[in-house]
Every structure is written in structure tokens, then in C-alpha cells.
Write a structure and sequence with these properties.
Elements (H helix, E strand, L loop, with lengths): L1 E5 L4 H5 L2 H10 L4 E6 L4 H5 L6 E4 L6 H11 L3 E4 L4 H9 L4 E5 L10 E3 L10 H9 L20 H11 L5 E6 L12 H12 L10 E7 L4 H10 L5 E5 L4 H8 L4 E5 L2 H8 L4 E6 L6 H4 L8 E6 L3 H16 L2
Parallel strand pairs: 1-2, 1-4, 2-3, 4-5, 5-6, 7-8, 7-10, 8-9, 10-11, 11-12
Helix pairs in contact: 2-6, 4-5, 7-10, 8-13
Length: 327
């Protein structure tokens, strides 16, 4: 069966769709898994051995052009994990006979099977909602999947090269201070710098760090990179801008001991490749870890919901700093 899985939004959102693709493939290896994704996620989709075909939707071409792309895939059924009117109409025009999607927004009228999920109630995580939607297609399908979901044969070689280039001889703990994607809360850049300083020089303890601190930045975060580098110019910190693509960044961080960031795409990427995470969420149910828990093993996830109240926020910051000091 040719199965089209549609998730054309951001990095973290797409990663929550990958377990669905995986279980559809493992349920029947003969299933031909096609994904329709945003350009940002193309390389990551192609790196997954349980995905057979990738269609890229730039969001700018006409609905007719997208429909033509989808028609060529000859999908027997589509699973639209997050819909909008454009992708809904394109699937209708592409002649896909069975089209499954959540029963939300006006776009639902273009699907043949509409499933009431009420995701805003957050009765399960985003990736679990996606999995449940797939079960409409195969009710007896096992929803369990191997973790980490994505592995690379050459990841260790890349990591060793990175360590050699930066004279790293210890395990790496990474701070990723960027505030992007759909993240709802984060520490300020100066608070991140303070956390790094605490990690390097634990206050009031005799604890000796056994790890190397690395600060990572996206390719469009040059200003943030320069600010942190200047603020920590005399510190034993490695500063790294990811300019070699999403897949290479995933390979690199798959070897890190811990990845510390807000709840955004890079957090989900770290979890995808099996890296332990410490993550900061907004103080609301919709933005919380209850909805955006990653696809890694729960024992590898440490979640903090940053309060709006300034006093409580300050108390949580101290708690996070102490936790980092004792790593």
C-alpha cells in the first residue's frame, strides 16, 4: 500500500510524525511510506530508512502544483497529521481516494475520514495523537517503536573529528540558547550565560566537572553566537554554529551526554537520535511537556515549566543551576 503522511510544518512537529511513519512500515514492510514535508525537513526525512519517498512542499507553489506532485506519488491513502486548507484541497485534487485527518478547521470537509481528537485537551502527547490517527488505518497495529528512532553509522566518526578539532577530551554537555520554532518560554541569553558559568565553576562545592561545555547555534544565529562568545571569551567553552545541515547536526549531537534547550525543534532532534535532554517549557498545558514530550525514552528527559511569576521563575532558575552543577 502506498501511504502518504502529510506534516508540512516545523522541525519539531515533523519529528513527532516520525513514529507514525515507523510503525506503518514495521506493521507491513511492503507499505510504501511517502511523506510530504516542508523544505527544512527534507534531508532529515531522506535520512530515515523507514521512509521511501519524499515530497517537498515549499508552501508557496499553487495548490494545483502541489496536487500534481501528490498525484505522481499514486498514494492509496493519506494521513494528514496537521492540516490546512491548502494541503487538504491538494489531496482532493490529486485524487487520493482515502484521506484521513483530524476533524478540525474548515479543511476537514476535504477528507473522507475525519477523526475527533481534541488535541487542545492534551490527553496525550503530540506524537501519540499522531500514532492514534494512524491506527484508524490499521486498528490492530502495534504502536511501539524502537528508540532511538534514528541512528547513523558515521556519527561516531563525525563526533571524533569534532572533538579533535576543538581539543575536547571529555564528554560533552551542550547548551542551545536559541529561542525559535513554537517554543513558548525560555531563559534570557544572559541567564543561559549564567547557567554556563555555574556549570564551569560550581558555587560552594568541591565538585570537579568531568565534561566539556559546548554552546550550539543555528545557522541564522550569528549575532547570538558572537554575543555569547564575547561574554564567555575567557571560559572553557566551545562555540559551534550548525552550518553543515540538519542531518550532520543530528549526527554530532547524537554523541553528546546532555542537550539543554527550550522546547523547540532542536530539542526534538536531540531526542530523535537518543541524546538525553533538559528542556524548558511554557507554564501552560498547551505548551507543556505533557503535550510536547519528546519521542525518546522518558528516563532520558528532564522537563522544567518556567513560571510567569518572577519570584517563582527566579526560584526555578536556581534549581536548574544547582542541577547543572551536580551533573
Amino acid at each position: 500500500m502506498n501511504i502518504l503522511v502529510v506534516r508540512t510544518d516545523k522541525l519539531g512537529d515533523f519529528i513527532t510524525a516520525l513514529p507514525t511513519c515507523k510503525v506503518l512500515k514495521q506493521y507491513d514492510p511492503r507499505n510504501h511510506i511517502i511523506v510530504c514535508v516542508a523544505p527544512l525537513n527534507e534531508s532529515l526525512a531522506r535520512a530515515c530508512d523507514f521512509i521511501d519517498e519524499v515530497i517537498v512542499d515549499d508552501g508557496k507553489s499553487s495548490v494545483w502544483e502541489l496536487a500534481q506532485k501528490l498525484r505522481k506519488a499514486k498514494a492509496d491513502v493519506s494521513l494528514t497529521l496537521f492540516s490546512n486548507t491548502r494541503v487538504a484541497i491538494a489531496q482532493f485534487l490529486a485524487g487520493i481516494s482515502k484521506r484521513i485527518a483530524p476533524a478540525t478547521k474548515i479543511a476537514q470537509i476535504f477528507y473522507t475520514k475525519r477523526v475527533k481528537q481534541r488535541r487542545s485537551e492534551v490527553k496525550m502527547t503530540e506524537f501519540e495523537y499522531n500514532l492514534e490517527l494512524a491506527k484508524v488505518l490499521f486498528p490492530k497495529m502495534d504502536l511501539h517503536f524502537e528508540k532511538p528512532l534514528l541512528k547513523f553509522d558515521d556519527a561516531q566518526e563525525m563526533y571524533e573529528s569534532f572533538c579533535k578539532e576543538n581539543s575536547i577530551k571529555k564528554e560533552v554537555i551542550a547548551f542551545h540558547p536559541g529561542f525559535g520554532g513554537s517554543s513558548d518560554a525560555n531563559w534570557s541569553i544572559d541567564e543561559y550565560i549564567e547557567l554556563v558559568k555555574n556549570a564551569l565553576h560550581p558555587k560552594g562545592t568541591s565538585h570537579v566537572n568531568s565534561y566539556q561545555v559546548v554552546m550550539t547555534f543555528g545557522p541564522d544565529e550569528q549575532t547570538l553566537y558572537e554575543y555569547c562568545k564575547n561574554a564567555l571569551q575567557n571560559a572553557d567553552v566551545v562555540f559551534y554554529i550548525s552550518k553543515d545541515g540538519l542531518v550532520n547536526f543530528a549526527k554530532l549531537i547524537s554523541n553528546f551526554k546532555l542537550f539543554i534547550s527550550t522546547s523547540t525543534g532542536t530539542y526534538h532532534l536531540a531526542a530523535l537520535v537518543g541524546t538525553p535532554t533538559m528542556t524548558f517549557f511554557g507554564d501552560s498545558l498547551f505548551a507543556s511537556g505533557k503535550r510536547w514530550k519528546s519521542i525518546s525514552d522518558e528516563s532520558m528527559q528532564k522537563h522544567y515549566m518556567i513560571p510567569h511569576d518572577e519570584r517563582k521563575r527566579s526560584e526555578m532558575f536556581e534549581e536548574v543551576a544547582k542541577t547543572i552543577q551536580l551533573l
